[in-house]
From TrEMBL, chain A:
<dbReference type="InterPro" id="IPR025966">
    <property type="entry name" value="OppC_N"/>
</dbReference>
<dbReference type="GO" id="GO:0005886">
    <property type="term" value="C:plasma membrane"/>
</dbReference>
<feature type="transmembrane region" description="Helical">
    <location>
        <begin position="194"/>
        <end position="221"/>
    </location>
</feature>
<protein>
    <submittedName>
        <fullName>ABC transporter</fullName>
    </submittedName>
</protein>
<feature type="compositionally biased region" description="Low complexity">
    <location>
        <begin position="10"/>
        <end position="25"/>
    </location>
</feature>
<dbReference type="InterPro" id="IPR000515">
    <property type="entry name" value="MetI-like"/>
</dbReference>
<keyword id="KW-0472">Membrane</keyword>
<feature type="domain" description="ABC transmembrane type-1">
    <location>
        <begin position="145"/>
        <end position="335"/>
    </location>
</feature>
<keyword id="KW-1133">Transmembrane helix</keyword>
TrEMBL record, chain B:
<feature type="transmembrane region" description="Helical">
    <location>
        <begin position="12"/>
        <end position="30"/>
    </location>
</feature>
<feature type="transmembrane region" description="Helical">
    <location>
        <begin position="134"/>
        <end position="159"/>
    </location>
</feature>
<dbReference type="GO" id="GO:0005886">
    <property type="term" value="C:plasma membrane"/>
</dbReference>
<keyword id="KW-1003">Cell membrane</keyword>
<feature type="transmembrane region" description="Helical">
    <location>
        <begin position="281"/>
        <end position="300"/>
    </location>
</feature>
<feature type="transmembrane region" description="Helical">
    <location>
        <begin position="174"/>
        <end position="194"/>
    </location>
</feature>
<dbReference type="InterPro" id="IPR035906">
    <property type="entry name" value="MetI-like_sf"/>
</dbReference>
<keyword id="KW-1133">Transmembrane helix</keyword>
<dbReference type="Pfam" id="PF00528">
    <property type="entry name" value="BPD_transp_1"/>
</dbReference>
């Protein structure tokens, strides 16, 4: 913690443990040196002046992506997390091909895992058992991955766009714009996300995927706003910004075309670490009955559906719960590894 | 120091005013207004007008705002639309349950997290450290309600040690009360502990590396004094921050965990009132939960003055 003793008591940086030290194999890799100016090259005007067309520039240029990938490959824990994430994404995308049965197909009720039930045309095997409606749990969990991941991605996209806009405008203009916007962000930041989400759902009324995305998305904007504002403050006086101003670029273009790409690394890391939080938030809302419609298969609803049967059929709740745990664990380890790979200090990303 | 505390109190009051205003306008922003939502789409215009008048919604907005703020400040919360019980009574019955769960949950969380973090930092890369790290990683990856369900299955169903349904008030004895909230408290406490453990470990590791620790060794300060007096005092500052921020996790967790253990706490009241479109209850539940949260944040801020001498002596800039 760079600001461990600092006066800024409520720094968001303190929100998570230091990934580098939390990792037993200490896989931080060597991430210094080469190529901090790289972003200009990658996202700048597009054409590389001939005098820079040298071997070393190309080396350096390739550096950052290369370095990030190499560090990640060295970090076995992050790699494992990444593989889990990829596996879940594949499962979600190809759900109809991966799932053994149709999502609405029913079999015998509450069959334990690793048993079979008789059907009209022979036997149906249930790797994870069946639930109280006779749905195959593996099938429901596979389709649930679709909803959960999609909602999480959409949520983070909403939070990212609104939060980034607020943060970039606040940091760019400073003054009273900054005060007003950041006062709001601080206010939201001091607030339990789930309560905020529940409150927004209360105002919007009605259930459904879109409402969940809006509710959780809004509840998450503060994190992005804080990060991008910090980044913008640190690059506001850079030469390329002054240059952009000098050539008469509009504010919006400077903010989103020049500054945003240069602040994108911590945002990517933050987004990766927000996805698991969004998955957990969606699961909580669904579990409470305030999330998606009750007929949609989602992990939170599956767990909630098994709640009454924990004495007869604990697997109904446990299986989707394990799915949540696994994918969240995957995102967390991968996100922590990504942070190390980008060499972003804890103080920049929660 | 007093100036600092006063400033924090003023800030908390401001935040609560902001919350109340947001709730006030939020409820009035509901499409068709709360009355439509309460009466349903088929309600006759007369019925809508009558209820609007009864709730004072026919008044101009500024008048409504002042009236409403006055009601909230004087604890005039009105009655539930569903049961016509006083909202104050409903909330007063629910609150002790949630607060019991949250308080015991935080206590359990800290009792687990601080030793685990210290062990992780002082026996770095030993089996105990790995156990703490893996445990913490698992803890941050599980929603509290899932922890609650696992606990209910193991300790309620399989071992049959503790009840898994309902809440026993403190007035019926400490032991039954404690038994009825132990599992829910652990369920909200473990994910909380996970975050605090990670912070404790990394903060302590950082202070153990600091130059003044080497100075302490050179001066011949003993190992125990060094750890608990020199290192811990500094390491605790960021830990308090995290412990404070993550109280949100405990409160939020309690909302879902109450459902697992069928406890009619604030979380249940809030969620049910939303599902029933029972707005008088919803607004008070949101205000109360926020109030508790803001108050706990204030306590955390004041705790700093006790542990961080820079605030104690410096005042302003801290």
């Amino acid at each position: 913690m760079t600001d461990a003793g600092g006066g800024d008591g409520a720094s968001p940086a303190d929100g998570a443990a230091d990934a580098a030290t939390a990792r037993p194999d200490g896989g931080t890799g060597s991430t210094d040196g080469a190529g901090f100016g790289i972003y200009e090259g990658e996202f700048g005007a597009g054409e590389v002046p001939p005098e820079y067309e040298t071997e070393s520039y190309v080396e350096e240029h390739r550096g950052i992506a290369d370095r990030v990938i190499r560090t990640l490959l060295d970090d076995r824990l992050a790699l494992a997390g990444g593989l889990v994430v990829v596996a879940f994404v594949v499962i979600a995308v190809f759900a109809p091909y991966v799932a053994p049965y149709g999502p609405e197909e029913t079999f015998a009720f509450m069959k334990p895992p690793l048993t079979s039930s008789a059907t009209g045309s022979g036997e149906a095997f249930h790797l994870l058992g069946t639930d109280s409606f006779g749905h195959d749990i593996l099938t429901r969990v596979v389709y649930g991955a679709r909803v959960s991941l999609l909602v999480a991605l959409a949520t983070v996209a909403v939070a990212f766009s609104i939060g980034t806009t607020i943060g970039i405008v606040a940091g760019f203009y400073g003054g009273w714009v900054d005060s007003v916007l950041m006062r709001y962000v601080d206010f939201q930041w001091a607030f339990p996300e789930i309560i905020l989400g529940v409150g927004i759902i209360a105002v919007m009324g009605g259930l459904g995927v879109v409402n969940v995305v809006i509710a959780i998305g809004i509840a998450f904007i503060d994190d992005f706003a804080r990060i991008i504002r910090g980044e913008v403050l640190s690059i506001r006086e850079e030469e390329y910004v002054t240059a952009a101003r000098a050539v008469g670029m509009g504010d919006a273009r400077i903010m989103f075309k020049e500054m945003l790409p240069n602040a994108v690394a911590p945002l990517i890391v933050q987004a990766t670490l927000m996805i698991p939080l969004a998955i957990l938030a969606e699961a909580s809302l669904s579990f409470l009955g305030l999330g998606v419609k009750p007929t949609t298969p989602t992990w939170g609803l599956l767990i909630s559906g098994g709640r009454q049967f924990i004495s007869q059929a604990p697997w109904i709740s446990v299986m989707p719960g394990l799915a949540i745990m696994l994918v969240v664990l995957g995102f967390n380890t991968f996100g922590d590894g990504l942070r190390d790979a980008f060499d972003i200090s804890q103080s920049e990303v929660e | 120091m007093w100036r600092y505390i006063l400033k924090r109190v003023a800030h908390s009051v401001f935040v609560m005013w902001l919350v109340a205003t947001t709730v006030f306008f939020g409820l009035r922003a509901i499409p068709g207004g709360p009355v439509r939502a309460m009466l349903g789409q088929e309600a006759t215009p007369e019925a809508v007008a009558a209820l609007r008048e009864r709730l004072g919604l026919d008044q101009p907005l500024p008048v409504q705002y002042v009236d409403w703020m006055g009601d909230m400040l004087t604890l005039e919360f009105g009655r539930s639309i569903v049961s016509s019980e006083r909202v104050g009574t409903i909330v007063a019955q629910a609150a002790p349950k949630t607060f019991s769960i949250a308080a015991i949950g935080v206590a359990i969380g800290l009792l687990v997290a601080i030793p685990a973090g210290v062990v992780g930092a002082t026996r770095r890369n030993e089996p105990a450290d790995y156990a703490a790290t893996v445990g913490a990683f698992l803890g941050v990856s599980m929603p509290s309600f899932f922890v609650g369900i696992l606990l209910a299955i193991v300790f309620g169903v399989w071992l049959d040690w503790l009840p898994i349904v309902g809440y026993t008030p403190l007035s019926e004895g400490v032991v039954p009360w404690f038994g009825s909230i132990l599992l829910p408290a652990v369920a909200v406490g473990l994910p909380y502990a996970a975050g605090v453990t990670r912070m404790m470990r990394s903060a302590l590791l950082e202070t153990l590396d600091a130059a003044y620790m080497r100075t302490a060794v050179a001066k011949g300060v003993g190992g125990r004094v060094r750890l608990y007096k020199h290192a811990m005092q500094n390491a605790l500052i960021p830990v308090v921050t995290v412990a404070g921020i993550q109280l949100a996790l405990v409160l939020g967790g309690s909302v879902t965990v109450e459902l697992v253990f069928s406890i009619q706490g604030l979380g249940r009241v809030l969620v049910n009132s939303i599902l029933e479109r029972n707005y008088p209850v919803t607004q008070v539940a949101i205000l109360l939960v926020s109030g508790v949260f803001v108050f706990m944040n204030l306590l955390v801020d004041i705790t700093y003055t006790a542990i961080d001498p820079r605030i104690r002596y410096g005042g302003e800039n801290a």
